[in-house]
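Problem: given the chain below (374 residues), write out its structure.
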Amino acid sequence: MNGNGNVIAAVNGNGHLLPAQQTSKVKIDPKQELSEFDEVFKILMEECLNEGQVSGDAEIGTAMTHFLKVCDYNVPHGKKNRGVSVVTSYKYLIVNPSDRELFKARVLGWCVEWLQAYFLVADDIMDHSVTRRGRPCWYKQDNIGMIAINDAFYLEAAIYKVLKKYFRQEKYYVDIMELFHETTLQTVIGQGLDLLTAEEEVVDFSKFSMSRYDAIVKWKTAFYSFYLPVALAMHMAGVQDDASFDKAKEILLEMGHFFQVQDDYLDCFGDPAVTGKIGTDIEDNKCGWLINQALILCSSTQRELLETHYACKDPASVKIVKELFVELDLKKRYRDYEEESYQKLMAKISSLSSPDLPKEMFISFAEKIFKRNK
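Solution.
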């Protein structure tokens, strides 16, 4: 604060103004943010991913026509929370960002959505899922099947084509490239933990534990869903302090754990008409929050029931497992967990003291996911 009582914003390595101490809340209009975000997807499809169409290259035209359909079906139809979070994070980190800067933040946000699509297309094949985002999974489409494996590879490759076009000249280009590569590896490791812990149709509860569950959630979900969007915005904003990245990661990984427990609960007890997918965690022998809680609370007789009916595709078996979850009062246990975790998370956010990490940014994320139903 200067002699006139005005707040002086810090200047980062890129010459941007950082909000040293925010005196007013950043105003975010969710509908407008989403609308402006969606417009950038159209630009990326036309400017960057239309290779073989624009050039008229007959050698790859057929493949590129197919890949455009892959992108259009799998990328823009989710809630887009991860992608939009890059933009909103940037707005919290930078005072009065320019239209050019916001466009680039939206491009980075779409790269996160492409990464999400890559993971989901592959994950649906591995999990034998039926629906995704209220529609048949991509591999379930007519004449697609296992072609979807190669389509998933393309979705990942598209990220780096977009990054090269729009960010090659930026100081932070290598930082965001490395972040995407690192996050992809972390998520693949998490998926490996998930698959190896619960082999399909082989029920071995000795492999299940809350510590194993925590590891799966951290590596498979939290890094890419929560840390990645904010870290991208921080790199773009010129934040270079390792301690700030570490503190952000600590909070965001905890938020990711909270989110995944919600996801597990909604997979079992959520309304498919609202969530947009039919839950299959029970049938797929997932090492989820509900089954781990059940194993802590159940009697020997109840455990035998779980060992008999968990990981069975038969709807009658799924019904028995769900009824047992209800009998163990896991709905209340979940509600208690949700409230306790939220309070713990908010306390951690309140303790933040770094000028590079506005508390409001983290609070806005927490409020979005608390008591969500999809």
